[in-house]
Design brief:
Elements lengths: L10 H15 E2 L12 E5 L6 H17 L7 E5 L11 E5 L2 E8 L7 E5 L11 E7 L8 H15 L24 E4 L2 E4 L2 H9 L8 E2 L9 H4 L20 H10 L21 H6 L7 E3 L2 E3 L5 H6 L5 E2 L16 E2 L2
Parallel strand pairs: 2-5, 5-7
Antiparallel strand pairs: 1-3, 3-4, 6-7, 8-9, 9-10, 11-12, 13-14
């Protein structure tokens, strides 16, 4: 089984390089300009992804861009090669959008990908750009929907979710830090304490006064708490789907300082009675109520089990209820 990256895989080297170089090579953007709407720009490096894989990565970037309502403040960078990590090019430009370097690397046998934010804005401490490494091992066999889910997960890490939760890593281009900590360790376990995500957790029925339980790497929600969620520590166990962006992850973006588009999140219920088994998901998941979009009615099924229970499976592309997330082999037929 492969796993998503731990949030601290690259943080130590990233933080060390950031502190050594930032104050000497930063030039503030000159003149007042209206900031551009937020979007994730992609810069592919090294081994070429197939056209289909690149299209999926772009789809993930568009999905993540939908979550952010904050504009990106342009900034001029003059960074030598390898400033954030090895094998990265020199950056000498006025950056108009948050961007991500996407590379294919040999990451061993245990994970799909890993990601990190790079230099941070002064003042907001939000990333200017980031890096996502996809594992060359098994990439050619990774179904489209799992690549999409992986890239959404990793791009959220590049934006700082799970990677900028501790003060040590929140250092801006000029070397300043806001000393903000969003996690705490109690009796050997990590908990998230940011106000917005914590409020969302409690609104969903989460219990306990310490905070939201985190995975052992302190960069993901505890899998036993959230089960199938885009930043779950067990997200790699929930394949063949795009895991939901819950109010917890939207709240974590807000805690970092982003304004978010709440309507772009997914419907999500905290599994208060424990994570469902595969059989539970196939047979017990209820169909969600149809969602109105304008004057048209869209049929939505939470799982293939729900579609089968409603007598709608299998569903072909274009038919009511069909979603690419339910079409694991991308052959145009879902829940076959």
């Amino acid at each position: 089984m492969m796993f998503y990256s731990g949030s601290n895989v690259k943080r130590l080297s990233w933080f060390r390089l950031l502190c050594l170089g930032a104050t000497l090579i930063y030039t503030p953007a000159a003149g007042a300009q209206a900031p551009a709407p937020f979007a994730v720009e992609l810069r592919f490096l090294g081994k070429t992804l197939t056209a289909a894989q690149q299209a999926t990565v772009r789809e993930a970037a568009a999905r993540v861009s939908q979550l952010i309502a904050s504009p990106f403040v342009p900034v001029t960078l003059n960074l030598p090669a390898n400033s954030c990590d090895s094998n990265l090019p020199r950056i000498k430009e006025k950056v108009q959008q948050f961007f991500v370097f996407v590379r294919v690397s040999d990451l061993g046998e245990e994970k799909y990908a890993e990601a990190a934010p790079c230099d941070l804005h002064d003042g907001s401490y939000l990333p200017i750009y980031g890096v996502v490494d996809l594992n060359s091992n098994g990439l050619s066999d990774l179904p489209r929907v799992d690549l999409l889910d992986t890239m959404i997960h990793e791009m959220l890490h590049a934006l700082g979710v799970g990677t900028l939760w501790e003060a040590d890593y929140r250092v801006s281009l000029s070397g300043d830090s806001d000393e903000k900590n969003l996690i705490r360790k109690v009796n050997g376990k990590y908990y998230y304490t940011g106000a917005r995500a914590l409020a969302a957790y409690r609104n969903l029925g989460g219990q306990g006064g310490t905070g939201i339980p985190l995975d052992a790497d302190a960069g993901h929600w505890a899998g036993s708490t959230v089960c199938s969620e885009i930043l779950s520590g067990d997200a790699g166990d929930y394949t063949g789907r795009v895991n939901p962006v819950s109010p917890l992850t939207l709240g974590a973006l807000e805690d970092l300082g982003y304004r978010i588009n709440r309507a772009a999140g997914n419907r999500y219920a905290l599994p208060l009675k424990g994570c469902p088994t595969d059989q539970d998901e196939d047979t017990d998941a209820p169909a969600s109520a149809p969602v109105n979009s304008g004057t048209a009615k869209t049929v939505y099924f939470a799982s293939c089990g729900a579609a089968r229970a409603a007598g709608a499976a299998p569903m072909r592309r274009g038919q009511p209820g069909y979603r690419p997330e339910m079409d694991g082999d991308a052959d145009g037929v879902a829940c076959e």
